[in-house]
Amino acid sequence: MTKGQPAFLPPDASITVHAPAKVNLILRILNRRSDGYHNLWSIMHTVALEDDVTIRVTSSGRGIKLTCGTEGVPDDHTNLVWKAASAVLDHAGLPVGIEVELCKRIPMGAGLGGGSSDAAATIMGLNQLLQMKWSITEMAEIGQALGSDVAFFLFAPSAIVSGRGETVRPVIIEDRRWIVLIKPSFGVETKWAYHELASTRTGVRPLSAEHAEIDRRDQLTWDQLTAAAENDFEIPVFAKHPLLREIKRTLLDLGAQFALMSGSGATVFGFFNEESAARLAGAQLKENPELKVFVVPTCLGPLRVSQSLPARPTLG
Ligand code: C5P
Question: Which atom, in ligand 1's list, is nearest to the CA of 116?
Fold first, then answer.
């Protein structure tokens, strides 16, 4: 990636990027690689449960300042947002200060990719603010070094993801559907889930003919995905957390077309064709105070940018 100066530095410009959660409609975990990661094959889709990432660039300041009002969210260099801002500054080679305000709504340890989405939103927002004109592929190159799911969010709303998570091919899935996300009071650590899966299964199952067919497509239907939905993490994670299996069963009883754990958990989601059925199921599950329940549509486009100061004319 080449370093470059932006056309100009708009003084104290700011932007808000809305960072959506994702669900895995299919998640297959394949062989372990020599770098310790696993090859995976997944269909991911963004859903309209969003964090807000507000970014301000100050030409007078230096360094990165992150603020976040949510308990348990680090506001230092360990946060993926901070790492993303740092990586962008490094690639851009710019003498500016960056202030980021993070408003969290996506639960953590949830398999919903919240931290990765925030990082992608930071890269995208800075690309726009600093007028770097990086392509999605260039931004994804920066993102994939930060975490396995970051690149996906730059290609949102839907993509076939493979390799360690860095190989992302957008795929068209027509129309919006409704998702009921159920997050229990506990989280699941991704590293633990991979370890548990690898140590409990007898071997790696290759991609089915059905999934291989999906892999060849540029466009998919919801019917195709409903028939092919599965997640390899369910067996080891449900064995440790039987409540998740119960939630899945309840969602199916309440009329979900299918129900699945997302990522390595702990969120389980129900997929509904109709908003009314999704809302009824959500209301039922909200009666349990131990569960966080979100009823949201699937996203129809890339990450939304809701606010941007007008660009100033190029200086010199
Ligand atoms: O990249 P990320 O931080 O999300 O990964 C967390 C952990 O999950 C890694 O340290 C690794 O142990 C495991 N992982 C894996 N294969 C992947 C992605 C993650 O083994 N494709």
Answer: 4
